[in-house]
Every structure is written in C-alpha cells, then in structure tokens.
Amino acid sequence: MLSEPDNPFTFEVRATNDAGTDVKAFSISITLEPEPPTIRTTSLPNGTAGTAYSQTLSATGTGQITWELAAGNSLPGGLTLSPAGVISGTPTAAGTFTFTVKALNGEGSDTKSLSITIDPAAGTTVPSDPVTPKSTGGDGGGGGSSMMIVVAVIAIAAVAAGVVAYVFFLRPKP
C-alpha cells in the first residue's frame, strides 16, 4: 500500500578533493498522486465449520483504505469483516458463500465478488442410509417411519451447522 512519504526530506552532499571539502544541504518534497483503491485479493482459502478463521484482504491505493461489505451482502454465519480488511471469526455452517466486499479511501472505492468455502467440521458424518422402520399398520405404530425422517433431518441440519449431535433411532415394537 502506498503512503505519503515524510516531507520534506532533507539531506547533505559532501564533496572532497585536494582543494578541500564543501557541504551543501538539499531538501526534496515528494507528493504522491491520489489513487483510489484497487482490490488485489482474488480468492480466499477454505475454512472449517467450528474452527477459527482469519484472512486479511489486500488493496492498493493512497491514504488509509477501509473495508465494508457491499450493500445487501453478508458473510457466512460467525464471520465478520473489520474496517482493516480482516475476515475473521468461527464459521457456524458448511457451504460455499459468495459476497461482495468494498474498499474505500478519500479518492474512491473498488468492489470485488469473493467466495469462501466452509468445509464441515472434522469428524462429522451424516449416515448415507439411515435405518427406517416399516410401519406396523393400524396397531398404533404407523408413525414410526415419519418420526425417523424428522430425526434424520434434524441430525443432518445439526451436522451441517457444525454442532456435535447424538442421534438415537427408535424402532417400533415388533
């Protein structure tokens, strides 16, 4: 990131020969042309649900650059974007999330669409074929398979949110 140099910059030039030494002081001022931000970040590393995440966005431009989410955008649950351009927090759900960030300074702004893929928490698995009991007919046990489906859906939602869940499957009496 470019910043204003210390102005003026003062220095001395010393010349020495057989005739003697001469010293001359000089002063130079440097002024940078104002430049709006240009976002340099092109991709973000994956994160894991339930595990701390931190990534700093990058942009060039003169002066102080501040960051925000473009209107109508949000980060994955549990993550925030600081004015310094740091996306951090602990993501709460797995998935791929796309959003637009905005970098601003006194000269203008730049926006960029980015994505973060949040992987499921380590050790979380979803049964591929949960056991579903058969209905026992009209003897009062007919709701068993419906209850199993509801329990399985709740378990899948808990795993996707990165929550450790214990699921007990009930079977109707034979």
Description of the molecule:
- With 174 residues, the protein is mainly beta.
- It folds into two domains: 38-119, Immunoglobulins (Immunoglobulin-like, Sandwich), CATH 2.60.40; 123-174, no CATH class.
- It is built from one helix and eleven strands; from the N terminus they run βββββββββββα.
- It has one helix at 144-160, and strands at 9-17, 20-28, 38-39, 47-48, 53-56, 59-60, 66-69, 79-81, 86-89, 95-105, 108-119.
- The strands form four sheets. A four-stranded mixed beta sheet has the order 4-11-10-7, with no helix packed on it.
Give the neighbour order of strands across the main sheet: 4-11-10-7
Order of helices and strands: EEEEEEEEEEEH
User: For the record, what is the CATH homologous superfamily label of the largest domain?
Assistant: Immunoglobulins
What is the fold named in CATH at topology level of the largest domain?
A: Immunoglobulin-like
Summarize model confidence as the mean pLDDT: 79
Cα(first) to Cα(last) distance is 72 Å
* Overall domain count: 2
**Largest sheet features:** 4 strands, mixed
Q: Would you report the number of β strands?
A: 11
C-alpha-based Rg, rounded: 30 Å
Q: What is the architecture of the largest domain at the second tier of CATH?
A: Sandwich
